[in-house]
Specification:
391 residues, alpha/beta, seven-stranded mixed beta sheet, five-stranded parallel beta sheet, 25 strands, 21% helix
Length: 391
């Protein structure tokens, strides 16, 4: 360890990538000082449950921590809670915090994640919610807990669809408003996006596709939303879920950000001793010239461990095919690989029974697969896709 730094490894961000990096460093024998900046007033915790089990009342936010406090003590990992990075001076190896304090580092991992994309049209109101943090989930849970009223979800991405599913299970009337022609348009071909829209409609969700919000009026009890087709939606509660943006503004003066930070296979940025992982990073894709942002749990876990290998002087492992999953209306939906534009969809199973694999193939790119209620088939799907990736 060096006596000239405040942290041999400083990690900005208290999410999954940070947690996995800490675990892999200590497991690999690293004995230097590790300091983690957690912008929330809580230790790293599991976020996928926020849009599902927490809203359903099946889990409390206090149960989401990855590790008990004693684990950090035993592994000599210092968590600075409620401490957010404000600026990076890469030349001096210094990170300035929001409170004005400064920390010197030997190696820096930026894992500050992402934040919901704003929709200023809706203004600020206790009825208008976003969902990123445990506090966000608790506030939304408090609004939905009585199981009555109407919820409008703006955006048919994963978060919006999962919240719509949870709200219907709680008994609320739900409308999903999506500007694109299909849900999950960036991840799935139109046929599969329309299948997901049909699943939600079967469970009573009013899904409005290819429809944008034109204006918003706040009433004494409700929010009145005018849509581009001339119709109106009235809701007591609104969730804004139109995607995220990387939380990298604090890196702008260093030459990195805003936007996802391009890195090599080991997580290295263009700056010496600076690495990136998770939503803040853009890792190489299946082809060397590609850089693909992957804003999912599996990618954050893998990339945090990848950076730890780099810090330990080890080569990165070949990445497996990317994967994300979602639980909607009692269905487990898993996507393996990247769905290319113009792909061919080959079905194995029965979409009407929510029991199938959709193989997504393209003549020039590796295949991908969407599995619905087929978790046992996931290892075989991953193996088939991995075998097609470039060596």
């Amino acid at each position: 360890m060096s006596a000239t730094v405040d942290a041999d490894v400083l990690i900005a961000g208290g999410g999954l990538a940070a947690q996995r990096c800490c675990e892999a460093l200590r497991r690999g024998g690293f004995d230097g000082r590790i300091v983690v900046l957690c912008d929330e007033p809580r230790a790293p915790y599991d976020r996928p449950a926020l849009s599902k089990a927490v809203l359903m009342g099946e889990r409390d936010v206090s149960t989401l921590a990855y590790r008990e406090p004693r684990w950090y003590e035993e592994h000599e990992i210092e968590l600075l809670l409620g401490a957010a990075a404000r600026e990076l001076d890469a030349t001096a190896h210094v990170v300035e915090l929001e409170d004005g304090s400064r920390l010197r580092y030997g190696q820096l991992l930026t894992a500050t994640g992402s934040r919901p994309r704003p929709l200023p049209l809706f203004g600020e109101s206790e009825r208008v919610h976003e969902l990123r943090t445990a506090a966000d989930a608790q506030a939304l849970r408090d609004r939905l807990a009585n199981g009555s009223g109407e919820l409008a979800v703006i955006g048919a991405g994963l978060i919006g669809l999962e919240v719509a599913s949870a709200a219907r299970a709680l008994g609320l009337a739900v409308t999903v408003i999506e500007a694109a022609p299909t849900p999950l348009a960036r991840a799935l071909p139109p046929a599969l996006g329309l299948w997901i829209a049909g699943l939600h409609r079967e469970h009573g969700v009013d899904v409005r596709l290819a429809t944008a919000v034109e204006s918003v009026e706040h009433g004494s009890r409700d929010i009145h939303i005018k849509l581009s087709d001339g119709s109106y939606v009235t809701a007591e509660t609104v969730l804004l879920a139109v995607g995220t943006v990387p939380a990298t503004e604090w890196l702008k003066s260093s030459g990195l950000g805003p936007g996802a930070i391009g890195v090599d296979a080991g997580g290295r940025t263009q700056l010496p001793d600076v690495y990136a992982a998770g939503d803040a990073a853009c890792y190489p894709g299946p082809h060397p010239e590609q850089r693909i942002p992957t804003q999912h749990w599996e990618a954050a876990a893998r990339q945090g461990a990848t950076v730890a290998r780099s810090l330990l002087g080890q080569e990165p492992l070949p990445p497996p095919p990317s994967m994300f999953w979602s639980d909607q209306h009692g269905r487990r939906i898993q996507l393996v690989g990247h769905s290319p534009d113009g792909c061919h969809v080959e079905l194995d199973g029965d979409p009407a029974a929510s029991d199938f694999i959709a193989w997504l193939t393209h003549t020039e790119l590796p295949p991908a697969a969407m599995l619905v209620n087929r978790p046992d088939a996931l290892p075989q799907a991953r193996a088939r896709i991995a075998a097609s990736l470039p060596n």
